[in-house]
Amino acid sequence: MTDYRPINLAAKLGLIHDHWSPRVVAEMNDYQFKLVKIQGDFIWHSHADTDETFIVLDGQLRIDFRDGAVHLSAGELFIVPKGVEHKPYAESEVQLMLIEPRGVLNTGEEGGERTAQNDVWI
Asked: Residue ranges of the Cupin type-2 domain (predicted)?
């Protein structure tokens, strides 16, 4: 039987207590909708095989590129094209939704201590 209940994003965000740890809230075909709280600087990375969508739900996000930056506020989105090196930054806490294919690591091919466990649902 189909579950016809909506997903409450605010309630799901309330379950997230760590920064830089995306949590899956929904899946459509092979794409996952992930919520994450971030603060501070991330690492330079890219995703060779997929675009990555950033939707700011709360706060101010800057995504740095080697040749510039984009600034996003709540209610705005930006799609980083596949293969483009980028580095998210949030001076204060930002709440985001990410949309990307199942199995994409948050640090791309860079790895390291900021790599979050993948496919964790809340």
From this structure: 39-99
Encoded tokens for 12:
């799901």
Domain positions in the chain = 25-101
Half-sphere exposure of 94 (CA within 13 A, CB side): 27
Contact 80, 40 (CB under 8 A): no
pLDDT of residue 115: 84
Overall CATH class of domain 25-101 = mainly beta
C-alpha dist (Å) from residue 81 to 46, 115, 117: 9, 20, 23
Q: Is this model's pTM higher than 0.90 or not?
A: yes
Torsion of CA 94, 95, 97, 98, to 10 degrees: 40
